[in-house]
Amino acid sequence: MTSNRPSGRPSSGGVPPTSRRSARQQRLAAREANRTLARAGTRNSGRSSGPLMMYTIIAVAIAAVVIAGAFIITNQSKATVPLAPPNAPVGSALTPASIPVNGFTLGNASAKHTIDIYEDFQCPYCRDFTVDTEPQIIANYVASGKAKLVWHDLVIIDSKTGGTESLDAANAARCAEDQGMFWPYHDWLYANQYSEGSGAFTKDRLKTVGKLVGITDLTKFNSCVDGGTHNSEVSAASSASLAAGYNSTPTVVVDGTATSGFDYATVSAALDKVLGVTPSPSVGASSSASSSPSVSPTPTATPS
Amino acid sequence: MADTTMAGTASRPSLWRRIRSIHPGLVLATLDLIGLGIASYLSFEELQNHPLVCATGGIFDCNAVAQSSYSRPFFNIPVAVYGVFLSLTLFVLAIAWWRTGNYRLLLLHYGLSLVGVIFEGWFQFAQVVLIKKVCIWCESYGISLILRFVVALWVYLRTPNPDAALSEELAE
After folding, report:
1. Is A132 within a domain?
2. Is B111 close to A44, i.e. CB distance below 8 A?
3. pLDDT tens digit string along B52-104?
4. CA-to-CA distance for B38 and B120, rounded, in angstroms?
5. What is the pTM for the complete model shown?
6. Which of A163, A245, A250, A258 is the most exposed place for a label (fewest CB within 10 A)?
7. Strand pairing partners for A149?
8. What is the predicted ipTM?
9. CB contact at 8 A, A231 and A148
10. Which domains can be identified in chain B, with CATH numbers?
11. How crowded is residue B172: how many other Cβ atoms within 10 Å of its Cβ?
């Protein structure tokens, strides 16, 4: 009897095929015999769990030491660990250069409707709004002149962290606006936001960002940053925002009415309401992988 | 008597049999190369201070994670660099095990990948809870690491101990 099976594996356990046994039954029997032998071989291999346990214990111990070290070092020196140099904003974090700007206003200054945004540069949700929602708003409402976007300072995180990074960042942004560079500087700040109070917006980094953004008169800019030239204006603006009842960031206000949320669906619904349009689902302009649906308005009623 | 089961059938092994015939060391080495590629990209971009190419939205933001101090816990070196060295070491171990059959090399591969998996668990915590952003590239590397750990463990548990087999032969 010959067999084409791989060497080392028996064919049929010594039982000769009978005329009544189908080829399939023979194969099944042989397969079961092989499995039995393999299991026996494994059980009798004498493989000890000792080495595996030893390596596991050592690995866990090493990992524990590494993690403990990482945690301790990170938390102890979080404020002093040199941060990576600022990175340029990319993708949806960039305010389109084609949109007209006028100081802190983005879009056609004479647009009938206004979207006021109240933000703190250290606020992570503000960053989410800037990267995810704002590009869609710009593409669907600001670019076409239906509305304009107006930035407002609302510095509230410093009181939580005990630092001045929010104030310094807002001041630096106004220093950039002195040279007509608020919106590019705004993009760079959000592109380089770290966790709150972690040193992302020290004056040195703010000045570095100014250089990278391309501010022409760096001497004037750096002096403005170092001296806190616009601190009082930032504080006044924040106080006015708080007095208006806006005490969280980001706050989005459409024609004087604060929206209930800052996701695109909520903001666009508020915009469509003031525009008097019925929204229809369509692809938004955002290139981000946002889970919020993008909606652009399709006029079906008499425009307001 | 000819094996009737093989009568009339081609001698070409099935696809599953061909997959199973691949030495697991090569499987591990392939996974190690994938991890090495991901870690190398992250290392190169982060050391050059270039922004990472990745989709952003919601909780996903590779650059926020990369810029965090939790991504540079030791000597301001990105964790991705350590990932490069780990993947390179694992790759060498996998190839060495494939070539020599020394199961201690497999155990070492298992142990090191376990260290990596545990550290990945910590890094996941840091991303979700502390940084509040998740890096897709880091997730991909973590998945490759988990796969390597699982494969190494599975292979070890199914590999007969050559030392015990040798002892049995000598006893006979």
Report:
1. yes
2. no
3. 777 666 677 777 787 777 787 787 788 999 999 999 999 999 999 999 888 88
4. 14
5. 0.50
6. A245
7. A106, A115
8. 0.73
9. no
10. 23-158 (1.20.1440.130)
11. 4
